[in-house]
Design brief:
- The protein is an all-alpha fold.
- The protein has one domain.
- Helices cover about 75% and strands about 0% of the residues.
- The longest helix has about 50 residues.
Length: about 325
C-alpha cells in the first residue's frame, strides 16, 4: 500500500466514523424528545383521571415515571460528552486528512518536491500526527471495509478548482439552504407551542376549567424538549457560516485569477478559508472532558493540525 493509499484509507475510516456518531447522536436526541413529550402527556392524563379513574391515573403516573427515567438513561448513554467529543474529533480527522490529500496531489505546501523534501514521507508523518491526536477516540472507529476507488492522481490548477473549490461552493450553498429551512421550522414550532400554551391558559381560566391545566405543562414541556431556542440560534449561526462560505471561496478564486498567482498560493488560501473556523471545534471538544491527552490545537500552518466543523463538513469529502 502506497503512502497516499494509506492516508485515503484512514480518511475513509474517520469520515464513516463521523457520520455514524452523528447519526447515533441525532437518534438519541429524537428519542429523548419523544420520551419527554410522552412523559408529560402521561402525567397530564394521570392528573386528569385522578378522581374519576384512580387505577388508570396510577398506571399513567407509573408509565410517565418510566418514560422520564428512560430520558436520563438515554441522555447518559447516547449523549454523553465522550460521544460528542468522539464525533467532533472524528470529523476533525477526516477533514484534516482530506486537506493533506489535496495538498499532496497538488504538490503544494509541505509537499512541494522542489524544496528537496520527500512528499511520501511527509504525508505519512503528518498523517501520524493527526492520528496521534485522536487516540482517545480510536475505539469508535468504523472499519471502512475493502478500499474503494481512490481519487485520481496529481492535480493542476484546473483540477483543483474543479474538485475542491467548485464542489465546496456547491456543498456550502446546499447546506446553507438546508439550515435556512431548518431554522424556520424550529422557529415555527417554538411560536406554535407558545401560542398554544397561552391560548389554553386563557380558555381554561375564562371557562373555570383549571382542572385541565396540566395540559399547559405539556405544551411547556414540548417547547423545552425540542430545544427550539437553542436550535434556532445554532441554525442561525450555521446559516451565516455556510451562506458566507461560497462567496468567500469565489472571492479567493477571483483574486487569484486576477493576480495570476501560483497554484501553491491558491491551495493555501482555499485550505485556510475552509479550515480556519474549524479549529474552534477542536478547542471546544477539548472542553467536553478533562482529557490531558487531547489539547486545543495551536499550531502554525506548516504543522499537521485537526480542523473540523463536526459532521456537517464531512459531507464535502
Amino acid at each position: 500500500m502506497t503512502a497516499f493509499e494509506s492516508v485515503a484509507a484512514e480518511q475513509k475510516k474517520w469520515s464513516l466514523t463521523d457520520k455514524k456518531l452523528k447519526l447515533n447522536l441525532e437518534r438519541s436526541r429524537y428519542t429523548i424528545l419523544a420520551l419527554s413529550v410522552t412523559g408529560a402527556v402521561l402525567m397530564a392524563l394521570a392528573a386528569q383521571f385522578h378522581a374519576s379513574y384512580p387505577a388508570v391515573s396510577r398506571l399513567a403516573g407509573y408509565a410517565a415515571m418510566m418514560a422520564l427515567v428512560l430520558v436520563v438513561v438515554v441522555r447518559s448513554k447516547g449523549l454523553n460528552r465522550g460521544l460528542v467529543q468522539a464525533w467532533v474529533l472524528a470529523a476533525a480527522a477526516a477533514q484534516s486528512l482530506t486537506s493533506e490529500m489535496f495538498r499532496y496531489r497538488t504538490s503544494t505546501g509541505p509537499y512541494n518536491d522542489q524544496r528537496g523534501g520527500d512528499p511520501d514521507a511527509t504525508l505519512l508523518e503528518r498523517r501520524d500526527k493527526i492520528l496521534g491526536r485522536i487516540k482517545s477516540v480510536q475505539r469508535y472507529a468504523v472499519d471502512p471495509g475493502p478500499q474503494t476507488a481512490l481519487p485520481s492522481g496529481p492535480l493542476d490548477a484546473d483540477g483543483y478548482i474543479s474538485e475542491r473549490v467548485n464542489i465546496g461552493v456547491n456543498a456550502y450553498q446546499k447546506w446553507a439552504g438546508h439550515f435556512v429551512s431548518a431554522q424556520g421550522t424550529w422557529q415555527k414550532i417554538e411560536s406554535f407551542l407558545a401560542i398554544a400554551g397561552a391560548l389554553l391558559a386563557a380558555v381554561l381560566t375564562f371557562t373555570n376549567y383549571q382542572i385541565y391545566g396540566a395540559w399547559i405543562a405539556v405544551c411547556i414541556t414540548m417547547g423545552l424538549a425540542v430545544g427550539a431556542d437553542a436550535l434556532a440560534e445554532r441554525y442561525a449561526q450555521l446559516t451565516i457560516e455556510y451562506g458566507a462560505m461560497p462567496d468567500r471561496l469565489t472571492g479567493i478564486l477571483n483574486r487569484w485569477t486576477l493576480q495570476r498567482g501560483t497554484l501553491d498560493e491558491l491551495v493555501e488560501r482555499v485550505e485556510a478559508a475552509l479550515l480556519g473556523e474549524m479549529q474552534t471545534w477542536v478547542a471546544s471538544a477539548d472542553d467536553l472532558q478533562n482529557d490531558s491527552a487531547v489539547a486545543p490545537v495551536r499550531a502554525p500552518a506548516s504543522q499537521s493540525v485537526l480542523h473540523s466543523t463536526a459532521a456537517r463538513t464531512a459531507h464535502l469529502n
